[in-house]
Amino acid sequence: LPGTVPEEPRCTVERADASLTYSLFLQRFAFSRPVILGGGTDNSVSAGRGRRVPAGCRFPPHPSRSSRALPAVDVPFQEYVEHLLKPQDPARLGSDTLYFFGDNNFTEWGPLFQHYVPPPFRIPGTSPAYSFGIAGSGSGVPFHWHGPGFSEVIFGRKRWFLYPPDKTPHFHPNETTLAWLQHTYPTLPPAQRPLECTLRPGEVLYFPDRWWHATLNLDTSVFISTFLG
């Protein structure tokens, strides 16, 4: 239920403020470990001063892509927000849970990305690709990995779990992150627990290449990721 998904007891991801320089970012974090950046962007316009749907956005009339553990499905965004955006049912598998994220149509979502102020850093030799998402309390993406990127929370709170590339987490690919937190996480010895932290609006997480990560939305959340490819 909303408000019942807990934050982590202690944030174990390093934080940096706006004084972090690009050279220090490359030296300390870009290729080695995640970091939470604060104060580097101002997306208050995108956040619409607290409204759940960012300012400048209209509901696209055409079907939008929603993700889940199995192949994605196309549903109208307004239908997703009004009828499918609900708290996670702990008994549901990932294949039964819809999660709006990825494959955004940049014509329909252009006003959102035009207002968005991206993270200040890049990895040499890469270019950014944005993805907008909105999801209900208790929903999330199970452990996976890909190239480096940033993720910013615009509204709500999002809890992150991260492992380095050489530590494969124990999980079932069709198990939701909420189920993993309830059943597997409590059995992990302290040395086997992931790095974790909760992001709040205006905070940006950077994750390096091939780092395992899973997410859990503690509230109805709006977020934008910047993938570096």
TrEMBL record:
Any one Gene Ontology cellular component term annotated for this protein: nucleus
Domain of life of the native organism: Eukaryota
JmjC domain boundaries: 95-229
GO molecular function: cis-regulatory region sequence-specific DNA binding
InterPro entries: Cupin_8, JmjC_dom, JMJD6_ArgDemeth/LysHydrox
Transmembrane segments: none
Protein name: JMJD8 protein
